[in-house]
TrEMBL record:
NCBIfam families per record: nuoF_fam, PRK13596.1
EC number assigned by the record: 7.1.1.-
Record domain NADH-ubiquinone oxidoreductase 51kDa subunit iron-sulphur binding: where: 324-369
Catalytic activity entry: a quinone + NADH + 5 H(+)(in) = a quinol + NAD(+) + 4 H(+)(out)
Keyword NAD: yes
Keywords: 4Fe-4S, Flavoprotein, FMN, Iron, Iron-sulfur, Metal-binding, NAD, Quinone, Translocase
Species for this entry: Microbispora corallina
First-level EC class: translocase
Protein's job: NDH-1 shuttles electrons from NADH, via FMN and iron-sulfur (Fe-S) centers, to quinones in the respiratory chain.
Gene3D superfamilies: 3.10.20.600, 6.10.250.1450, NADH-ubiquinone oxidoreductase 51kDa subunit (3.40.50.11540), NADH-ubiquinone oxidoreductase 51kDa subunit, iron-sulphur binding domain (1.20.1440.230)
Reported cofactor(s): FMN; [4Fe-4S] cluster
UniProt entry tagged with the keyword Repressor: no
Name of the protein this chain belongs to: NADH-quinone oxidoreductase subunit F
Pfam families per record: Complex1_51K, NADH_4Fe-4S, SLBB
Length: 428
């Protein structure tokens, strides 16, 4: 496969891509507002669009969970709190093509019969917040937001809300608590947001890329979208290549493409080096090695090999990287970002960090490998949200694939990768 599918990224090279003039006149939204809302939900169901935020839940099905004629306000909340280590697709999308998101918000809100929508953006990315605010302002000025949009009788108010920079607020219920003005912590489910979400009302929480994909589906049809990708993972997605790759960046391609194909388009691993390990979907997904180069990057194939497609954040590491140190850095992040609500995550991530520090310095023992996997086992499936589960992924997978590298730290009493490059253990 050598063909990319530039849909969301199709206008990124234009100097005015982020303006209404560079984007277009919201033709998909005009068409959608002339349709029955249930018909739009059905189109999205037929397209096979699955959540692009990591979980991969069918988007149209999530919309269909919203109860109708219940006398309550309905809300759409766009999760733009992108903060997974290695994930960098939503931020450039909002910078280069924010109007695709705004148009998607209009269509999605109309489909779920919501008159209020929120875009929750990570607070540190001030430049992105300003870019999205400018796009929303342009849409209001053209009459694409507000009262009686396109003369359809449909009203929609859209608010851009900046978070305070907490990874936990990427979890949908913690995001809702933060949006309501409370400390961001995950809620006990059920009830799910579709029944009792924002302000205890039916709410749909979708990822930026999921919502931004909707206008192209309405414009081109469900069959067009379903014609790309694989049987169960349909459509296209943005694959973010970072790390030790010749041309890192965003590659929009059909689901089911392989890392080998993406690397061919990205110029391969940096010159003079070879692939050691990589993440298929950010740091919270179990790592892969060179033996997984030809695994189709779709939800089913990646899952069958023991990992998760996640956010398609492909972090590439060559043979100069110490896997123990990389896992320690990720674990330090999760320990720092744990909200502290549940004991397994709060205590487990802390102790994982302490033991990994000792292991990385070569001061541990082989028994410590059993300790960290035992701690990870006690976190997995026992925390309020997926942060705890995600923190265990690099632990289990690194011990599985690189146990010898952990043992080498004990043997030499330190990290073998701290020595001169010419004597790096495993590089020859």
């Amino acid at each position: 496969m050598t063909t990319l599918t530039p849909v969301l990224t199709g206008n990124w090279d234009l100097p005015d891509s982020f303006t209404l003039g560079g984007y277009g006149e919201y033709e998909a939204a005009k068409r959608a507002l002339g349709m029955d809302p249930d018909a739009i939900i059905q189109i999205v169901k037929d397209s096979g669009l699955r959540g692009r935020g990591g979980a991969g839940f069918p988007t149209g099905m999530k919309w269909g969970f919203i109860p109708q004629n219940d006398g309550k306000a309905h809300y759409l909340v766009v999760n733009a709190d992108e903060s997974e280590p290695g994930t960098c697709k939503d931020i450039p999308l909002m910078m280069a093509n924010p109007h695709s998101l705004v148009e998607g918000v209009i269509i999605t809100s109309y489909a779920i019969r919501a008159n209020y929508a929120f875009i929750y953006v990570r607070g540190e990315v001030l430049h992105v917040i300003r870019r999205v605010q400018a796009a929303v302002r342009e849409a209001y000025e053209k009459g694409y937001l507000g009262a009686n949009i396109f003369g359809s009788g449909y009203d929609l108010e859209l608010v851009v809300h900046s978070g305070a920079g907490a990874y936990i607020c990427g979890e949908e219920t913690a995001l809702l608590d933060s949006l309501e003005g409370y400390r961001g912590q995950p809620r006990l489910k059920p009830p799910f947001p579709a029944v009792a979400g924002l302000y205890a009302s039916p709410t749909v929480v979708n990822n930026v890329e999921s919502v931004a994909s909707v206008p192209s589906i309405v414009a081109n049809g469900a069959d067009w979208f379903a014609g790309m990708g694989t049987e169960k993972s349909k459509g296209f997605g943005i694959f973010s290549l970072s790390g030790h790759v010749t041309r890192p960046g965003q590659y929009e391609a059909p689901l089911g493409i392989t890392l080998r194909e993406l690397l061919d388009m990205a110029g391969g691993i940096r010159e003079g080096h070879e692939l050691k390990f990589w993440t298929p979907g950010g740091s919270s997904t179990p790592i892969f090695t060179a033996e997984h180069l030809d695994v189709p990057l779709d939800f089913e194939s990646v899952g069958a090999k023991g990992s998760m497609l996640g956010t398609r954040a492909l972090q590439i590491f060559d043979e100069t990287t110490c896997v123990v140190r990389a896992v320690l850095r990720w674990t330090e992040f999760y320990a720092h970002e744990s909200c502290g609500k549940c004991t397994p995550c709060r205590e487990g991530t802390y102790w994982l960090k302490q033991v990994l520090k000792r292991l990385e310095k070569g001061q541990g023992t082989e028994d410590d490998l059993a300790t960290i996997t035992d701690i990870a086992d006690n976190i997995l499936g026992r925390s309020f949200c997926a942060l705890g589960d995600g923190a265990t992924s690099p632990i289990h997978s690194s011990v599985k694939y690189f146990r010898d590298e952990y043992l080498k730290h004990f043997e030499i009493g330190g990290c073998p990768f701290d020595r001169a490059a010419s004597t790096v253990w495993g590089s020859k």
